[in-house]
Write a structure and sequence with these properties.
alpha+beta; Helix Hairpins; D-amino Acid Aminotransferase, Chain A, domain 1; OB fold (Dihydrolipoamide Acetyltransferase, E2P); 6 domains; 5-stranded antiparallel beta sheet; 26 helices; 26 strands; binds 2-(butylsulfanyl)adenosine
Length: 696
């Protein structure tokens, strides 16, 4: 069987007709297989660039051997290649995602957190709006002076793709708002397809020999990715508006009023919305919508609950990338039965061995599933799932499919329990489990190819350096060819541009594109850089927290190195950051202690610039000061107070020291208040803090 790498080595100008014929036969099958993986299963196996390469190769060979063009040639079918060519749009306000609730307890916890954060009595009345969560593709529409200027995809939440022309083809998206309207605002909503129209559309595709879509969401997404808006116009797309992005802060008192205004401007909003007051109202709505779900005529995957009062939404703010004031209550997971064909072990960047179930492909609620996670060795033992078992698979929303259980009555008589490997399947090093840990880890560290390659993949990934076109497959092949061994090598590829262009099967254009994408990332934000380093436990939220606290990378690095000595102030500063636990601090310190990591960072600093972190903070008397809160606050929770302080440019520490500038003392404050007085640090009560915060 040919591989993409084999094909890349072929010089098509010198092949004979027989070779051309066999390559074309191979490409017809292979491209169709990738189309199916992409369209029907949503599980592409190859990068967009490799897919493009296969299609281009087919076109070139057909151009040289027109008589060999096959009736089932991929060139007769419309390409599904993810399109290049859309320009980027930076959203006026980030497009957030929603946290999920899967049961009544999660909903109760959601409400409790809101009451706690706002420091409200449990009997304080609060209103929530419950509305359907439409299972489509989100879009952001920028209107200026009432005219639709830009329509964009969500992208990574900060930057999306400008698909204005495609969105304009949807009748339910007004090109002009009905007055009165503000000068500039963004409308958020969901593009979706109705079931009946989706079925007809798929039947038409099937009759033309085109690949059918697995579900309406994939079909909507495909329609919005067309470079030619005339194609989008032929697809039966709809739009529901559900909120706003960039807007005048004081425009609406409630979400309900906002929904009515959206309707007045000419948008379609869901009529299935309701004001609720408590968990019982919310869950009753959830049950009743769940019952209506199959009759709606389009897909919904849950109910969204939103705090109705917009000033309260603003107070609640955002945590990570989700609002504290909203949650998606998902419908029960979809399940299906299939065969577990194999269990394979994947080795991650931190060396964790994760078992992956390979399944006989099965449609679970509209999505083809062929892999599921088995989490870890204990999980396999607890469920006693064995290769060859019939198993129940489930998926809920975007969550990775899981194996619920094995069907014991259908178990083959010769089956044996799965033996979890005690050595890394990649480098053969011992795989060990630390006491109290569920994960078994490869001890190979930097001799383990899997760990090195996974770290490199993490480095260029979407939330890291986000180097366009530098997907997993390229990282793997560049690593094997010794072109990239450590992150800094990526930025040195430019020096071997001529060699890269001579690389078999690689056009000058692909090399130019890759090098341009790399050059574009020579300057990087501090949170992205910290995340990209792949330090254990340092995800996006913690990277942001560290950037906020240390401001620039050089200062951060020297402080973390000093923090190796636990008696040093630098350690106290790190440990006192709210949100950094002792185990995270240990991982951070350990990372910067390792010589290899120091080399990686130093190598990178020769190649790139890390932008100092500037967050939008109000200039205030608290800017740059260190605050400590102690005792019980009454007007707000401790969390809200801390977040307000951060917005005012302050640092919040957990303990009082000579470095503390202000201590905010609530009721029943104990030793911290006493220590503040002893050290002569300025003390404020809650009202004094709020007054200064509001007027600074
Ligand atoms: S509100 C700040 N409301 O669900 C809140 N989202 O995981 C942002 N969605 O990307 C979303 N129906 O595309 C909201 N009624 C609804 C929704 C809805 C569908 C999608 C949306 C978003 C995703 C959140």
């Amino acid at each position: 069987m040919m591989t993409i790498e084999d094909l890349k080595k072929i010089d098509i100008t010198s092949i004979d007709a027989d070779t051309a014929k066999s390559i074309l036969a191979f490409l017809a099958i292979e491209i169709e297989r990738h189309d199916k993986l992409y369209y029907a299963h949503s599980l592409p196996e190859i990068s967009d660039a490799d897919y493009d390469f296969l299609r281009q190769l087919n076109t070139k060979i057909e151009a040289n051997f027109p008589d060999l063009k096959r009736p089932d040639s991929p060139s007769h079918k419309i390409g599904v290649t993810p399109q290049e060519g859309f320009s980027k749009y930076k959203h006026g306000a980030p497009m957030l995602s929603l946290d999920n609730a899967f049961n009544e307890k999660d909903v109760t916890d959601f409400l409790k957190k809101i009451y706690r954060y706002l420091n409200l009595n449990p009997d304080h009345p609060l209103e929530f709006v419950a509305e359907p969560k439409i299972d489509g593709v989100s879009a952001n529409l920028l209107y200026e002076n009432g005219q639709l200027k830009i329509g964009a995809t969500r992208g990574d939440g900060s930057i999306g793709e400008d698909i204005t022309q495609n969105l304009k083809t949807i009748r339910e998206i007004p090109h002009v708002l009905k007055p009165p309207f503000p000068e500039r605002l963004e409308i958020r909503g969901e593009v979706y397809m109705r079931h009946d129209e989706f079925d007809t559309f798929n039947q038409e595709r099937a009759s033309k020999g085109e690949i059918v879509f697995a579900n309406p969401r994939n079909a909507s997404s495909g329609a919005l990715r067309q470079l030619d808006a005339r194609i989008t116009a032929q697809r039966p797309l709809h739009f529901y508006a559900y909120g706003m992005g960039l807007h005048d802060p004081s425009s609406f008192p409630t979400h309900w009023a906002l929904l009515n205004q959206l309707e007045n401007w000419g948008f379609k909003i869901s009529r299935l919305r309701q004001i609720c007051h408590n968990v019982q109202d919310l869950t009753t709505f959830h049950v009743s919508l769940g019952q209506k779900r199959t009759d709606l005529g389009f897909d919904i995957d849950g109910v969204v609950y939103k705090v109705n009062d917009i000033p309260l939404q603003d107070r609640l703010g955002i945590v990570s990338r989700s609002p504290r004031w909203a949650i998606a209550h998902k419908f029960a997971a979809e399940q299906a039965e299939t065969t577990l064909e194999d269990i394979q072990i994947q080795v991650g960047r931190t060396g964790v061995l994760t078992p992956v179930a390979y399944l006989k492909p099965i449609n679970v609620g509209g999505v083809m599933v062929s892999r599921a996670t088995l989490h870890n060795e204990d999980e396999i033992a607890r469920k006693d799932v064995r290769i060859g078992d019939r198993v129940i698979v489930q998926r809920a929303g975007d969550v990775i499919p899981q194996i619920v259980k094995a069907i014991l009555s259908a178990r083959p008589t010769n089956s044996v329990p799965y033996q979890f490997p005690e050595h890394c399947p990649i480098c053969g090093s011992l795989a060990f489990r630390e006491e109290g840990e569920v994960a078994r880890k490869c001890s190979g560290g930097l001799v383990c190819a899997a760990q090195i390659v996974e770290r490199l993949k993490h480095f260029v990934s979407k939330h890291g350096f986000d180097i366009e076109g530098f997907g997993s497959k390229y990282i793997e092949s560049f690593w094997h060819e010794k072109l990239v061994q450590k992150p800094a090598d990526i930025f040195k590829l430019k020096q071997i541009e001529t060699d890269l262009k001579k690389r078999e099967g690689w056009g000058a254009k692909s090399v130019d594109n890759l090098l341009q994408a790399i050059e574009a990332k020579r300057s990087i934000s501090m949170p992205r850089f910290l995340y990209a380093l792949g330090i254990p436990q340092i995800g996006q939220a913690t990277a942001l927290l560290l950037a906020k606290n240390y401001g620039n990378f050089q200062h951060f690095e020297s402080e973390i190195i000093k923090a190796q000595d636990e008696t040093n102030d630098a350690y106290q500063n790190l440990a006192s950051i709210d949100g950094i636990g002792p185990s995270m601090a240990k991982d951070l310190i350990h990372f910067f202690q390792e010589l290899h990591n120091q080399d990686v960072v130093a190598g990178l600093l020769n190649e790139i610039t890390i932008e100092p972190y500037e967050h939008i903070i109000q200039e205030s008397i608290f800017s740059g000061k260190t605050l400590v809160f102690t005792g019980t606050l009454t007007k707000m929770s401790r969390d809200e107070a801390k977040n307000n302080a951060l917005k005012l440019g302050a640092k919040v520490a957990g303990s009082v020291s000579s470095k503390t500038d202000y201590v905010i003392i609530g009721a029943d404050a104990g030793s911290k208040a006493a220590k503040a007085k002893e050290l002569g640090i300025k003390c404020l009560n809650e009202d004094e803090f709020l007054l200064l915060a509001q007027h600074s």
